[in-house]
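Sharing a chain and its predicted structure for anyone who wants a worked example. Both blocks are below, sequence first, C-alpha cells second.
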Amino acid sequence: MPATVTVDLRSDTVTRPGEAMYAAMMAAEVGDDVYGEDVTINRLEATAARLLGKEAGLYLSSATQANLVAMLVHNARGDEILVGRDYHVSRNEAGGASVLGGVVLETLPTDERGALSVEQVLDAIKEDDPHQPITRTLSLENTVSGRVQDPQLHARLAAAAREHGLRVHLDGARLMNAAVALGRPAAEIVAPFDSVMLCLSKGLGAPVGAMLCGDAGFIQRARRQRKILGGGMRQAGVIAAGGLYALENNVDRLAEDHARAVRLAEGLRALERFPVFQETNMVFIEPGADEAGELVSFLRECGIEVGSPYAEMRLVTHLDVDDEGIEQAIGAFDSFYRRNAA
C-alpha cells in the first residue's frame, strides 16, 4: 500500500489498537491458557458469554477458526450443514468444514437482504435416507454484507430447524453492528441459537481473535476441537486483553461508524454517478466497469484505499476513519468525476 494512504476504507479488519488498548495489553495478567490459568482470557470468555447470554465462551485466534470449531462440534463426518450461499462459512472459509471435518455444505440462495426463508430450510432438510447426508445444522449470519438480519425471522428459522432436530449456529462476526443498529441487546438477538461466534478484530477494533459461545457442554467439546486444530494458546492474555478492552469500550461507539457510513453514502449519492447502498458501517457502490480500475488508482493517489475494482465496491467505515477522512473520500470521488467530465 502506498505510504500516502491516509483513509483506508477496504475493511474494518484494518483497525489498529489505540493507546488505551495497547496499555491494557501491556498490563495484562497472563498464565497458561491450555491449563486454564490465563486470568485475562478467563475474564474475556466470561465477559463474552455474559454479553451474549450464553453459559460459556471460548477464545480463538480468528472468526474463521471459531466458525470451523462450531461446525466440527455440531457435525460428524458425512453430516450436512444448511447455509446461505453467500455466507462466510460457505464462501470465504476455504471449505474448512468439508476439508477437515468431512461435512457436506448445502448452500441455499438468499434474498436481496441476505436472508433465508423458513420454507427453504424445511425443503432442504433431508429425509433419513442412506443415499443422502444427514442434515444436522443450520448456520445463519448477522450482519450479511452489512445488512441487519431480522431477529424475528432468525427465531422462526431456528425454531423450524430445531423441530427437525437440527442445531443452529450464528456467524455473528459483525453481530454488534446489528445490535447497535437495532438498539437491542446482543443476548436477545442470539437467544435462539445453540452457538454464536463474535469477531473481536473487525469493528470492535481488537488486533486479533474471536469468541465462540454456547452452553457449557458445547464449549467443552469446542475446546477439544480447538486443540486438534492447533489453536491452544499459552500466555495469550496479552492479545486477549485487546479483545476484552474492545467488548468493554468499543461496542456503543459502533454507532459512530454507522453515522459516518450514512454521511459517506449521502456524499456519494449526491454525485449522481452510480447506485449507492448503505446499511450499518458498509457502503456499496457500482461504478461503471469501464472506469472502476481508473477510479481505484485515482483514489489511491489521493490517499484513499478502497480495495480491488470489482463491479460492486465495498467501502467500510471503522474506528480509524474520522469525519475528516469521510469528507476527504467524498472529495476524492468528486474530483475524479469532475476531472473525467472536463
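Comments welcome. The domain at 253-341 is CATH 3.90.1150.10 (Aspartate Aminotransferase, domain 1).
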